[in-house]
Design goal:
By secondary structure, this protein is of the alpha/beta class. It contains twelve helices and ten strands. A seven-stranded mixed beta sheet has the order 1-7-6-5-4-2-3, sandwiched between helices. It has a three-stranded antiparallel beta sheet with strand order 8-10-9, covered by helices on one side. It starts with a helix and ends with a helix.
């Protein structure tokens, strides 16, 4: 078993990086795996291509270890958005989601509704944009067949109560966009019917990586409309003169051959997560976010994210007075702090590798910011 300290030491992100909710710098093992397979790709030695074929089995096993879904109900995706497209185009009836969700959910729902005319959408406006079980319950209709929610809200860092949402929606399909919490939250994915995530953020596996996992019901009931050659039944020696039917289950939800190097990166990152364990990673990140809250409090910067560890993951959102935002942003830049500034708020996001030098850089930025206000 890998310790949390050993895990943290595999990363080399520079001090001041607090933007894992945008993208997570890859660790050395992931980079080494990419380079090793890149060398094989470049040389094309006889028989070496077999290692590329092995990555499909490897990545599904790595996803299983972290999500709990069996390997026959997971499928690699190039990103979370593609998984959501598969899910929404496979639905019929009415899907409910928050109007403040990250665009991947509403765009997939709208594109499916516009193209197929078999899916309706209904949006909710929960207080503060936070999707709670009660907010979902109050917006359900008899026509609602599915509910889509982010595991972690990208605007506030709020960690959704998936079990509570499952309780109020009954046997409706539950779709979870897990990208802002996958690999750093020990979530009850088993209550969901569809789980999608990308690996470029908290997994730290780089772009072009992700997955879609399905419950037994979803694997049977979702229609694989976006199913390409690798998601179809192609007999040996087929001439491709006819379009073959899709495969059964999760395997149908793919379009063409996946990038084996991307699969290897994703596998390497997830294998490390499984070795250290999600509870240990979640606790370590909770402590980092608590340290960020303490610094914000020290300088009187309003915190809009939940202070309750049970309601947050790795994201912390600060909301200074509007007239002070430009000055605060400038000081973050001057002190080498990487963060996301959007909609009048500053979003900080920490990982296990976030160390004291980063906290000191943030403290320095807020010290200078405070001094500038006194003039």
């Amino acid at each position: 078993m890998t310790t949390i300290d050993e895990f943290a030491q595999t990363f080399d992100d520079d001090p001041g990086y607090l933007d894992f909710a945008s993208f997570g710098p890859m660790g050395r093992p992931v980079l080494d795996e990419q380079n090793a397979l890149g060398e094989i790709h470049a040389r094309a030695r006889y028989g070496a291509a077999a290692v590329f074929d092995e990555q499909e089995i490897r990545v599904r096993e790595a996803i299983r270890r972290v999500t709990g879904f069996p390997t026959d109900r997971v499928v690699f995706q190039p990103n979370a958005s593609m998984g959501l497209m598969h899910a929404m185009f496979g639905l019929s009836g009415q899907v409910l989601y928050s109007a403040r969700e990250y665009p991947s959910i509403p765009m997939a729902a709208q594109r499916a509704a516009q193209a197929l005319h078999t899916l309706d959408q209904i949006t909710m406006q929960p207080a503060g944009g936070i999707v709670t079980p009660s907010a979902v319950r109050d917006n359900l209709t008899p026509a609602t067949t599915a509910v889509a929610v982010s595991l972690v809200d990208y605007r506030t860092g709020y960690l959704a109560d998936l079990e509570g949402i499952r309780d109020v929606i009954g046997d409706r399909i539950l779709i979870v966009d897990a990208i802002q919490g996958f690999s750093v939250v020990d979530a009850p994915y088993e209550v969901a019917d569809v789980v999608v995530a990308g690996g470029q953020k908290w997994v730290r596996a780089g772009w072009g990586t992700g997955f879609m996992a399905l419950s037994e019901r979803a694997a049977t009931d979702l229609v694989p409309l976006i199913s390409g050659v690798t998601g179809t039944i192609v007999p040996m020696g087929a001439s491709y003169e006819e379009v073959p039917p899709p495969l059964q289950g999760a395997a149908a939800f793919q379009i063409t051959r996946n990038d084996p190097v991307a699969q290897a990166r994703f596998s390497t990152a997830l294998e490390a997560v499984a070795e250290v364990g999600l509870p240990a990673i979640q606790q370590a990140i909770a402590e980092k976010v608590t340290a960020l809250i303490d610094i914000a409090d020290e300088f009187g910067i309003p915190v809009v994210s939940s202070r309750d560890e049970r309601e947050r993951a790795g994201i912390l959102v600060l909301e200074p007075d509007p007239e002070q935002l430009t000055a605060l942003t400038a000081e973050l830049i001057n002190h080498g702090v990487t963060a996301t500034v959007r909609g009048g708020a500053v979003r900080l996001s920490a990982h296990v590798s976030t160390g004291e030098a980063t906290f000191e850089a943030l403290r320095g930025a807020l010290t200078s910011f405070g001094s500038s206000l006194s003039y």
